[in-house]
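seq:
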Amino acid sequence: MSILTDTAGAHPARPAADGRARGPRDNRAAVVMATVFLVLAAVYMLLPVFWLLVSATKSQGDLVDSFGFWFSGFHLGENLKALFTRQDGVYLHWLLNSLLYAGLGAAVGTLLSSMAGYALAKYTFRGRELVFSVILGGVLLPATALALPLFLMFAKLDATNTFWSVFLPSIVSPFGVYLSRIFAASSVPDEVIEAARIDGAGEMRTFFTIALRLMSPAMVTIFLFQFVVIWNNFLLPLVMLQDERLYPVTLGLFTWQSQVSRDPQLQILTVTGSLVSVVPIVIAFLALQRYWRAGLSAGAVKS
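struct:
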């Protein structure tokens, strides 16, 4: 026993799949390779953000003439001032529209998805699996395939070029219903629901006072996914809206970029506006990540 401890340290070498012992060197090599891969992946993901940050600090001339991935002067304040004063502050209006579409749409969509997922998980009724299969089919449908039918539907109702033409389709989330059902089935015990019914609680009260609290980690996930999807949505507003005052920030920046050939100054404003548009998403993730951690910790501890 002492020989094994002295030669192999605290943990003896474990045999690999091919029968050979795997020593500390092999483990270190695997850790180094995994670390290198993760660093390269992080660089790949963050490089566009770094370019955006660097480019937003340049003047229009420096944006064209200087090296793209390093600073050349610092004109961020001037760019921000020009961004928020252009066309009587239309960019701020676009930003508020996006916050309304994404924030309110994600909140309502999360609530509807949670209610539908809870019902599919906890109630037994005829055709339940068929309904769930149809919802799964909706997850596979691309947004581009739905844009034209949605436009025709809203055109029949004379509701195109309105707030509702972008908001109402945004609150539907088949993926949210799927995730809610899976989470409700595993995190909301049937015994708790039955105890609430015995105590005289109705179905709505049981859902809002008990089930929603137990499903909060899934709801945060659904909200963030839906928020990002609505915030980055471009095709639906492009099809539905003609009034510039109703544009979200994605469509507004696209219209500026399409006019760069006539007004080159719009190029730096588009870059600066893209940087500003990332900030709400970052804030949302930073503000809600603690709910993820709390949910994971609660699920990891068995009482």
